[in-house]
Design brief:
23 helices; 5-stranded antiparallel sheet; 3-stranded antiparallel sheet; single chain
Length: about 600
């Protein structure tokens, strides 16, 4: 059955376009918190893809050229979307701006579709506008320029929608939809996924309990009845659990190595000092303060930033309480759930929640407690349109449009960006080196690095405009030995050497990290033949660089960044997930054809 034309969906789309205004201006808001990061992440991904590495886990130019396993531990989807537009001919900055723009429009449409399924189109319009125009969402885009988190706004409503459908209307399409939404969220931001997953689990549990009690009203607690309840609970939980597990399978190529190999990178530089979460709680008055600025987060209550969630969303959220008496069944349960979620997360953003932060160690990776405010944006988006339920069928159709306009006008003064000058050297290797020198968090390092570098020989060459053609540290090559790089790529290097020494160890200007592998090659008729693997380990020095022990004679060494067993397992699981989807759809199609 074809759905009729929905004017409220069109309005949601058109109203969302207003939010794109600052993106349409020439230039870029370079001074936003992560603005340069977003561009250089795309720049680095592009270098690897053009070198033939379609899923690059190693970023060769980060850490001043010593390299860093960035996309092995950081969700790559937002950069991949930007790469599509860059390959279509847009420059790096424009590609990033397009992704920001898409995240705005698609997040509104995703919230619209989710809420429409629950409350209808009028409520969906209000929910979508609260979601798009919540000041924290604007803050995320135009003050923080947090590309991955902004794109994650698209997937969060889709994940919840999938959870709802798999419980209330279980079917294979709903399970697959939930799985792809969850996988998309995982590929976008592992941090947001970490925070949303327990909320998703609680949301699904609430829905399962509501449906369970609707189908099997309480009538005592006999052993037989309790066993029946437990059995039915598991029966109802199977579809959403299947969707979640399938989502984990589809995204295993990313999250499995990220979770198991994260311990091989240094995190101390992101967990202390400026990033100490104890210095970045939100003070209660800041949740309502109209103050807005473009500074960074600072200890104390005097941040020149806006941490409010919006006076209109707050007001609509409070007024939604008037509708609670009219709500029934799962909708009432969801309203209570999102109200409790709003209160709980706002509490976690306040200094009074410090003991909980001390106890919940995983939450510390959020670094800034105010980062949790994206969750109340979600819950207020659900609560805000409930005011329409308070008046029931007597609600004029135009009331939803007026509320949506009120939401837009309430946040419109904050829809602005602060223009900035591009980095010296532009979006180039020279620009990247200069940027890293002024941005310590860009200088990620592996666990074997004892002293985080502040510059490198590579950086000098890039600044001078000289192409880097080797990673060999010639300080490790004795005078009676020769070595030369024959081929150089983003994740591999082929060298030839000649030595009469039995104890020669060649050091490469690369941070050691699991996956670096060295092969001894012999050349026969212009082709190279692998003789065997060579011992490779981190140097016993401040930089923890790759060292390879090589035999006497004239030989060739191939140094290559490869998948570890856990990365191969993750890749295999992702392929398994895709095959399951294809096979089940194929079987269903064949079944219906036979029938």
């Amino acid at each position: 059955m074809r759905r009729r034309f929905d004017p409220y969906l069109v309005l949601a789309f058109l109203f969302s376009l207003i939010m794109l205004g600052p993106l349409l201006y020439p230039g870029y808001f370079w001074n936003a918190h992560d603005a340069r990061h977003s561009v250089f992440f795309l720049f680095e991904l592009d270098r690897s893809i053009r070198d033939g590495v379609l899923y690059p886990r190693w970023s060769p130019d980060f850490a001043f050229g010593y390299g860093y396993p960035f996309f092995n531990i950081y969700g790559p989807l937002s950069s991949y979307v930007g790469e599509v537009f860059h390959l279509l001919g847009f420059d790096f900055v424009t590609s990033v701006k397009i992704v920001f723009g898409l995240s705005i429009v698609l997040s509104g449409l995703a919230m619209f579709l989710f809420v429409r399924r629950l409350m209808g189109s009028r409520a969906a319009l209000v929910a979508a506008m609260v979601y798009v125009y919540a000041p924290y969402h604007i803050f995320d885009i135009y003050v923080r320029a947090a590309l991955a988190e902004s794109v994650s706004f698209v997937f969060i409503p889709l994940v919840l929608w999938g959870g709802y459908e798999t419980v209330m209307h279980p079917r294979w399409n709903a399970i697959v939809g939930m799985a792809f939404a969850y996988a998309g969220l995982m590929f976008t931001s592992n941090l947001v996924t970490l925070l949303i997953t327990p909320i998703l689990a609680l949301y699904i549990t609430v829905l399962v309990l509501v449906k369970l009690l609707d189908e099997m009203p309480l009538r005592g607690f006999s052993r037989e009845y309790v066993l029946m309840l437990m059995g039915e609970f598991l029966h109802l939980a199977i579809p959403p659990a299947t969707g979640l597990l399938l989502g984990l399978l589809l995204s295993a190529v990313f999250w499995l190595p990220a979770a198991t190999e994260f311990k091989y990178v240094r995190t101390d530089q992101w967990m202390g000092g400026y990033y100490d979460y104890q210095d970045h709680f939100v003070y209660f008055f800041q949740l309502f303060s109209p103050r807005w600025g473009f500074d960074i987060s600072r200890p104390g209550p005097d941040d020149d930033l806006g941490f409010q969630l919006g006076i209109v969303p707050y007001a609509l959220g409070v007024l939604s309480l008037l509708a609670f008496s009219r709500l029934k069944g799962h909708l009432k349960a969801q309203a209570v759930f999102f109200l409790a979620l709003t209160v709980a997360v706002i509490f976690l953003a306040l200094p009074t929640s410090l003991p909980l932060w001390e106890a919940l160690r995983l939450v510390r990776f959020a670094q800034f407690p105010w980062r949790l405010l994206f969750i109340p944006v979600l819950s207020l988006s659900f609560l805000a349109p409930l005011i329409l339920e308070a008046t029931g069928r007597d609600t004029p159709p135009l009331s939803a449009v007026l509320l949506a306009v009120l939401v837009v006008l309430g946040s419109y003064p904050y829809v602005r960006a602060e223009p900035g000058e591009p980095p010296e050297g532009g979006v180039s290797l020279a620009g990247l080196m200069r940027f890293q020198r002024t941005s310590n968090e860009m200088t990620g390092s592996t666990a074997w690095v004892r002293e985080i570098p502040t510059w490198s020989p590579f950086a000098d060459l890039h600044i001078a405009g000289i192409e880097v053609v080797t990673r060999i540290d010639y300080g490790s090559i004795p005078d009676d030995t020769s070595a030369v790089t024959l081929e150089w790529h983003t994740a591999s290097e082929l060298i030839g050497y000649k030595t009469d020494r039995d104890d020669l160890t060649i050091t490469f200007n690369l941070f050691y990290y699991p996956g670096w592998t060295a092969y001894l090659l012999e050349k026969e008729d212009d082709t190279y033949r692998v003789v065997g693997k060579l011992p490779l380990k981190p140097e016993d020095g401040p930089l923890g660089r790759v060292t390879v022990k090589v035999p006497r004679g004239l030989h060739y060494v191939l140094l290559r960044f490869e998948d570890t067993p856990i990365r191969k397992a993750g890749t295999a699981l992702t392929w398994l997930g895709l095959m399951l989807v294809v096979v089940v759809y194929g079987l269903r199609r064949a079944f219906f054809v036979v029938r």
